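Structure request: Response regulator transcription factor, Microlunatus elymi.
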Amino acid sequence: MVGVTEPPAGRSTGTESDPSRPTRILIVDDDPIVRSALGLMLGGQPDFSVVGEAINGRDCLAQLGTLQPDLILMDLRMPVLDGIRTTREITAGHPTITVIALTTFDTDDMVLAALSAGADGFLLKDTPPAKLVSAIRAVRDGEPILSPSAVRTLLHHVQADDRTERRERARARLAELSERELEVAMAIADGANNAEIAGRLQLSVPTVKTYVSRLLDRLELNNRVQIAICVQQAELTP
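Returned structure:
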């Protein structure tokens, strides 16, 4: 996902019943240049269909019934109705819609508020295009994704006990893992999705998924972000 808040383990989307249907994406941002850039980038992907744009949260909510998006890219700082409140309304009233917070800012309050509101992922707008597309696919497929800085923010808000004790507990848990399991855990902490881990470690994607499931069981955790936080707590990454 953990301390103050955890992102959800991933809500199902309408695309799961028909994998051949492109994922319907709604872009919500008050900046027309950002909307245009995202539309051009995502519209060129065969598995994505950009079905509409909204200039603020109120505009977004008004279009949900007509556009029926599977996934929403949600700017957080907007006039009229901001992305945090909009995300909260969507996750409460439309639980099958996946929401990814996409913002220029990653302050502690912003990260925690977005995840608490129910966002399935938190990414920065300056994420490289290829990485952004890959991350959107991962979230769509049920993998909660956070930018590395957002993971660090969550780490800073985990229980305020002694850092040394926290590090040693995390290292003791990770010491029970095999070498390959630890490699997968560290790749998750680095923000890699399953396909990227597979390429990095020369494994198949199904094998990576098996390792992730095994890590969750062995570490007694609920989701990938908790794995990342455990690795961060152990101070095994820069």
